[in-house]
From TrEMBL:
Protein name: COMM domain-containing protein 6
Transmembrane feature ranges: none
Entry GO MF terms: NF-kappaB binding
Family assignment from sequence similarity: Belongs to the COMM domain-containing protein 6 family.
Function: Scaffold protein in the commander complex that is essential for endosomal recycling of transmembrane cargos; the commander complex is composed of the CCC subcomplex and the retriever subcomplex. May modulate activity of cullin-RING E3 ubiquitin ligase (CRL) complexes. Down-regulates activation of NF-kappa-B. Inhibits TNF-induced NFKB1 activation.
InterPro entries: COMM, COMMD4/6/7/8
Originating species: Erythrocercus mccallii
PROSITE patterns named in the record: COMM (PS51269)
Residue intervals of the COMM domain: 120-187
Amino acid sequence: AADKIRLIPQDFFAELCEQIIQHLNHKIPGINTAELCQRIQTSGVDINTGDLAKIANTLSFLFSTAARNNLSTEELVTTLGSGIGTLPKHAVQVIRHVWNEQGKAIAVSEDAGNMATVGQFVDMKWKLGVAMSSDTCRSLKYPYVTVTLTVADPSGQITDKSFEMTIPQFKNFFRQFKEMASVLETV
């Protein structure tokens, strides 16, 4: 991971660290590594989404462990220096600054840790389509609904999950959402 961190410009690395701290503080549902990776690539850096996700996971583990152990900024930097001697100087400076400014705010509770193992729903988009024809059938005229769910997994990585449903399946899906809404109103 240290080799890939060297490639990331300091401003993008700082943005990634700040997003991780915000995620750990439950202020944002996750880190959109795909969007950040695209912006880094546009700036001329050759890095892929998988590598950036690994860096984000490593930093998330670093910050959450430091919070759990109540480390001061100097203790964290000393630990980084002794454990990962290959970490670039600009990365250590960013980690020092972000931890000094925002690290103490990380809420460490057992309940938050247990809830984080499930992931979090971020957004849902849907669209109605009609399949007009295919190479095996000239006249389909078959309506369907495409649903895209945006979900933050427990590590904070944001991913999209898409699926298609027939109209009867969508009606059942909708009915279940109405049932959930009515149950939630009673709480």
